[in-house]
Amino acid sequence: MSSFPPDLRYTPDHEWLKPAGSSWRVGITQFAVDQLGDITLVDLPKEGDLITKGQRFGTIESVKSVSDLYAPVSGKVTAVNAELKDAPELVNTEPYVKGWMIELQPTEKAELDELLSGDAYTKHVAAQ
Amino acid sequence: MERRKTPLWDLHRSLGARLIDFGGWDMPVQYTAGTIKEHKAVRESVGLFDVSHMGEAYLRGPRVREAIDRLTTNAVASAPIGKAVYTLLCLPSGGVVDDCIFYKRAEDEFFVIVNASNTTKDLAWFREQTRGLCDVVDVSDETALIAVQGPKAVALVDALANGTLAGLTSFTFAEAEIAGVKCIAARTGYTGEDGFELACPNADAPRVWSALLEAATPLGGLPVGLGARDTLRLESKLPLYGNDLDEDHTPLEAGLGWAVKLDNRDFIGASVLRGQKAEGVTRQLAGFRIAEDVRAIARHGYPVVDRAASPPVIGTVTSGGPGIVVGGAIGLAYVPVAQAAAGTQLTIDCRGKDVPATVVSGKFYKRKTS
Predict the structure, then answer these.
(1) What does pTM read for this prediction?
(2) B153-160 vs B205-216: helix axis angle to the nearest 10?
(3) Does the beta-carbon distance from B321 to A41 stay under 8 Å?
(4) ipTM of model
């Protein structure tokens, strides 16, 4: 099983988070990308939208299936990766860099403590 | 339960395939290139498919033509020797048992290839419906099947067969030696491209596959998984049993009237189909497109709705996905005949969002004929 960047935080739903100023950048992991196959559409919220942990904030359409994106923590959307509109394949090719999806300003700081470390996420994936 | 493996399973693993459960078989859904590149390789060059999970059988005997005439909607029994014929198998209700291709080898011998998911059902159906008229010999477990598809497929296979196959016309077959292996080579496929489907004994399949792959790679060819097999067949509007065809819909409703020959024939289901043809069908499988800027994909099972009607659900999407070469999203849906004409605007409920779609006639993708 592959390992995951140690400097990121993760959710059991295969999303990653990384600090970006006062916000956190959110994307999906290589494991999720491998499961989905080629991604053809990414539907994301708008800047300024408020989202709640565990609720659907977007969808990913791959060639063969549609999947929901669930908010890793509650917060306000401070940035959206507009490049994905015309180049959804960036999620396949660079899931941790150009394939990021949104930036969130967390409203419930305690939720950040529940995120998984790289090691913990690697174990979570190995158990799947 | 352990998944079944084709004789090419080890080769798929070494090629980096992602394997999934497909009707109890451990099959490649994609290789390292991914579904989109695999799809484009078939449209632009050549792709190799392991379809050894499909079922194969021989039907033999002096009265085999009577038996086959009873089973098939298309004119299989009376076809010339050497011809491959696409046909439906129907229930007395006109519902579809399966779609398959029969190969007429002699007046008293036919070969048939059926869908993997229906092999057990079909073999039982053949035996039940042809009792006393012919022998049914199931060779599924010892037969491998490799499809070679794309604009460069014919020249590639022909070269490996020492120039014996280029003269084979569409929907005909011949015995051939490919990379030193005796195969049945048929000029057929399920991608909308030209090419061959090659049947050979399991033990010889890795040799054939490796020779094909070695010849295909310098041409930009790729091994292709079931993911692209599905997007390719949908773009060419070829129906998939279990999605677009089933026991509850007839071939006429599915738009396959061209494969139903009713004149002076009495196959199973013929009387219902004759009535349906005379009166006209009430629902029909329609192809639809969703424009690129709508940014939505309608998939299997999504309802087709008319918000002014009560109840609002007027049909169901049976297949749908991205149009990889044709753009936007494409799909097939059973809708009332009044909504099935080209240009009709449909509304599809895509997970709670009403999405506009337009009915289109014919294939979404048509290959360039050279």
Answers:
(1) 0.95
(2) 130
(3) no
(4) 0.89
